[in-house]
Structure formats: C-alpha cells, structure tokens
C-alpha cells in the first residue's frame, strides 16, 4: 500500500520560522482502536487534498507528529519515507492496513473454553507472541531510522530496566545519536503493551560506536496521550534556539496549532465500581471480562489529565481555536477492547470513527468524567475542515516567505 504520491515533486514543508505557527498532530495508544484515528486522519487528508491537490499528505502540513503505542505505528506510517522520499502511506490506507493485519497480530481464540485458555496464557506470559507484528513492522520500515522521517516525530516508550520513560524524538536524535534508532525497533517497543505483547530489547550505536541498551515496553505507561510530550519537545527546542523555530515567549500557546486524536474508551459504560474492585486480587486487576482494568485505568487517567491541561491552558491564553481534541468515550463491549480483532469488531470501529466525525467538538469534564460538547464548536468534521484551511494557508505562507528569502 505505498503512497500514491510516489514520484511526486512535492517539496517538504518550509520550517516554522518562515510562517506563524508550529503545527502538531498527536495520536493516542489503543491497539486495534487505532482504526478510529485512522478514519479521522483520512478525512483530514481528503480536506487538504481538496485545497491543495491529490498529492497532499498529512506529513506535508505538520512540523511534528507524535504517537504512542498504536499511535506510534500510525506516526511512522505517515512520516517514514518511501523510495521517492514521500510518505509510505496515505492516511486513507491506515484503516485498510488495520483491517488486514489486526487479525494476524491478535489471533482470536473462539469457543466455550476461550476465556480459560486466555487466562492460562496470561499466567504464563503475554497473551500474544508478537512475532507477526515484529516481522510486519520490520518489513515495512526496513532500516529507516528516526532521523529519516519526512517531518519530526516523537514516540514515547518506557524502559522497564531503568523504570523511566524514553522519548524517541527526531530533535533529540540529532543531539543524541544513540537515540537515532531504527523506526521499526521504536514502533515495536512503544507497542509492547504489558500482558498483551512481549517487552522488547535492542541495542543501538552512535557514530563513535558507543552502544546503548534499551529494555522497553508500551509508551502508554508514560504518556498514552502524547500531546504534552510533543509540546514539551518543541518548547525545549525553542529554548535551545533551534534554527528552524522562532522565539516563543513562555506559555505562548498562541503559536501552536494542535490536533490530538484519541482511540476511544468505555468511560460511559461504567463497567467497574469500588465494590467490585475492592475484592480484586492480582489476577482480577489483570484479567476481567476480556479487559485489563489496571491498564484501562492508568492509560485513561494520563490521557484525560493531558487533555484537561491542554484545554484549560489554550483557553486561558485565548488560543482554544487552535486546539482540537477528538475522542469518543461511548464505546461498549468488544469495541472498547484493544485486541478483539474479529471482522465484526473491526468494522464496528470503522463505524465509530465515521460517527465520531458527525459528533460535536467536545472537551473533558473531570468532575463528571465525561466529554461534553463545546458551545458553538460545531461538529468534528466541521472543525477538521477549518483546521485544514489553516494548515493549507500556513503552508502557502511559508512557501511564499521561503521563496522571497531566496530572491
């Protein structure tokens, strides 16, 4: 499914210092629920193509794309180059990719003994061996390294040996060559969800042959919603006076444009309660009705706190028109799973993404624990149309200014 733009003469987006904004796209973790942001991204890219032609791709408009776990894989698909130095995948190809490969990454066990078999497997190791996923990712990305991406990327992981996050950032790869790992290794690492897929270890060398060892698991442990990590990486580079960036005053979020895509959750299902959890031991926290409560809890907690922080800060600085969070908290049953890769469930997730486009722009209410419609925010589809126009205008402004500098 290589990008249709192979051979296109479209040039890279000029740097932010030739325009007025720093543009950021982020994608949460969530296993097979990566289908949901896949549908959203396909619509956004179609709007960019209506404005700028069929060769337009997501990576042509964002200074930074960040993704955790399944979002990290989507990030690599959007930003890694093919042989013609264009994105490996168009956004419209993300959903078909998940529909084709998810059943092989997460092979399903059916029948009356499925629950017992899954529990037995969970006792002895991860639910899935990851072999198909590892081979697939390495086959797609080959030897592509972090510094090779067409736009900057940020992919969080967590080092289980050092018990600390490891953030793979295109910016840091230049300053710290030992972080300039192969994208395949990074994607496998950020997707290594505890209890589902095995932890992943690898070594990487810098130009002086100094070796660094990594012992990594799912980036969701550190940042299932990577938006703050992305903003932090850019801010750090601004403070270091990166040549491509312009000076930003402290907390001047008005220069950021951020689209943050969630992968859905079952918040409204209220499937757990204190009475249930008070009785749980280790096994129940790890395995309860085809879900893993402890992972659901820490992933959703960090994602919501990031969204709440961003919404408040952007609004306080009168920049809320440049922050868009698209998330669905109404998933139920198998749709909320990260790994139930039946044909019925995968198609159901496609429909969730399509319906989400028609839903109103929403924000998290931490008091009620739900997303609520933003007043006069319109639908997510309308918001994406508006953001596409801003992104297109920003690119055109940069191209004009960059051309003027050469004259």
TrEMBL record:
In short, the EC number is 3.1.1.-
Find motif (DGA/G) and give its ranges.
218-220
> Which CDD domains does this one have?
Pat17_isozyme_like (cd07214)
Question: What keywords are annotated for this sequence in UniProt?
Answer: Hydrolase, Lipid degradation, Lipid metabolism, Plant defense
For the motif GXGXXG, give the residue ranges: 29-34
Q: Which stretches make up the PNPLA domain?
A: 25-231
| Description of its domains | The nitrogen atoms of the two glycine residues in the GGXR motif define the oxyanion hole, and stabilize the oxyanion that forms during the nucleophilic attack by the catalytic serine during substrate cleavage.
In the record, the note on similarity to other proteins reads:
Belongs to the patatin family.
The record's function comment reads: Lipolytic acyl hydrolase (LAH).
- This chain's protein is named Patatin
The top of its lineage is:
Eukaryota, Viridiplantae, Streptophyta, Embryophyta, Tracheophyta
């Amino acid at each position: 499914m290589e990008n249709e733009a192979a051979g296109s003469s479209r040039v890279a987006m000029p740097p932010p210092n030739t325009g007025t904004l720093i543009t950021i796209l982020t994608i949460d973790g969530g296993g097979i629920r990566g289908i949901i942001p896949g549908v959203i991204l396909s619509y956004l890219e179609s709007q960019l193509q209506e404005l700028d032609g069929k060769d337009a791709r997501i990576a042509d408009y964002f200074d930074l794309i960040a993704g955790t776990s399944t979002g990290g894989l989507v990030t690599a698909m959007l930003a890694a180059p093919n042989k013609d130095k264009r994105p490996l995948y168009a956004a419209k190809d993300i959903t078909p990719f998940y529909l084709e490969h998810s059943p092989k990454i997460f092979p399903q066990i059916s029948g009356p003994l499925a629950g017992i078999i899954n529990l037995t497997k969970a006792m002895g190791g991860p639910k899935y061996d990851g072999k198909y996923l590892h081979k697939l990712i390495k086959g797609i990305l080959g030897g592509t390294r972090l510094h090779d991406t067409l736009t900057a990327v940020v992919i969080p992981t967590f080092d289980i040996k050092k018990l600390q996050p490891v953030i793979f950032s295109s910016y840091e790869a230049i300053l710290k060559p030992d972080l300039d790992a192969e994208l395949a290794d990074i994607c496998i690492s950020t997707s290594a969800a505890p209890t589902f897929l095995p932890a992943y270890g690898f070594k990487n060398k810098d130009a002086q042959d100094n070796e660094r060892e990594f012992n990594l698991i799912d980036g969701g442990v550190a940042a299932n919603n990577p938006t703050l990590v992305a903003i932090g990486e850019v801010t750090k580079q601004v403070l270091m006076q990166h040549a491509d960036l312009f000076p930003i005053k402290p907390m001047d979020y008005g220069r950021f444009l951020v689209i943050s895509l969630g992968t859905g959750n079952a918040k409204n299902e209220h499937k757990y309660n204190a009475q249930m959890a008070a009785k749980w031991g280790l096994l129940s926290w790890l395995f309860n009705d085809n879900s893993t409560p402890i992972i659901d809890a820490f992933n959703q907690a960090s994602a919501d706190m990031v969204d709440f922080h961003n919404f408040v800060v952007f609004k306080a600085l009168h920049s809320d028109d440049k922050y868009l969070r698209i998330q669905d908290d109404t998933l139920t049953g198998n749709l909320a799973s990260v790994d139930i890769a039946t044909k019925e469930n995968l198609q159901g997730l496609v429909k969730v993404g399509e319906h989400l486009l028609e839903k109103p722009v929403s924000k998290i209410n931490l008091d009620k624990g739900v997303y609520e419609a933003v007043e006069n925010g319109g639908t997510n589809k309308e918001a994406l149309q508006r953001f596409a126009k801003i992104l297109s205008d920003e690119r055109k402004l940069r191209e004009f200014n960059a051309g003027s500098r050469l004259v």
